[in-house]
Write a structure and sequence with these properties.
Elements: H1 7-15, E1 23-27, H2 33-41, E2 46-51, H3 54-63, H4 65-70, E3 73-77, H5 85-89, E4 93-99, H6 103-106, H7 110-118, E5 120-130, H8 138-147, E6 157-160, E7 164-169
Parallel strand pairs: 1-2, 1-4, 2-3, 4-5
Antiparallel strand pairs: 5-7, 6-7
Length: about 180
């Protein structure tokens, strides 16, 4: 049974277009709503959630205790720029998702985007999704585009469907 899932998270999960056998990495899972929704809809998906906040890690783990116990969900405290992140969380990942993680629009977070791109399989997707109250999404779009301007990621795609989402795929040619 899925608990209350905010509309922005439902819209973000819908963008992922999952087949059901992917390995998904979420950055900044907060209370774990996206993990819960994805795992309920797709029994074959494996999910990893990473957050800098110990509180968020505890909330995600508690909300998704059954998935953690079954090994379908791994929750870790950490930062995407940690050079040991891949060793800690595994991978490679088919999809990386972040919802309302401000670092990608408040500054050009190229180091963070490069670290995430390196965790993707060739052709894997990175989705950065934002709820922008008031419809003023220009700053968000400009910031996210600047963050995603890194080697190994293709041109960003913008989707506006109740949220502002910017996605990019890792190039298939490698690095």
């Amino acid at each position: 049974m899925v608990g209350v899932v905010p509309d922005r998270v439902q819209r973000a999960v819908a963008l992922l277009d999952l087949r059901g056998d992917e390995v998904v990495l979420e950055i900044g899972p907060g209370p774990g709503a996206a993990a819960e929704l994805v795992l309920a809809r797709h029994p074959g998906v494996r999910y990893v959630a990473v957050d800098r906040s110990a509180t968020a890690v505890a909330r995600t783990t508690a909300r998704n205790r059954a998935a953690v116990d079954r090994g379908r969900l791994i929750v870790r405290q950490g930062d995407v720029t940690d050079p040991d992140l891949a060793d800690t969380v595994g991978g490679p990942f088919d999809v990386v998702l972040a919802v309302n993680v401000n670092v990608f629009w408040t500054r050009a977070a190229c180091t963070e985007a490069s670290a995430l791109a390196a965790l993707l399989v060739p052709g894997g997707a990175l989705w950065l999704v934002y709820e922008t109250p008031g419809g003023d999404d220009g700053r968000v779009l400009d910031g996210v585009r600047a963050s995603l301007a890194v080697p190994g990621l293709g041109a960003p795609v913008v989707v506006r469907e109740g949220v502002v989402a910017v996605g990019a795929r890792r190039s298939r040619a490698g690095w």
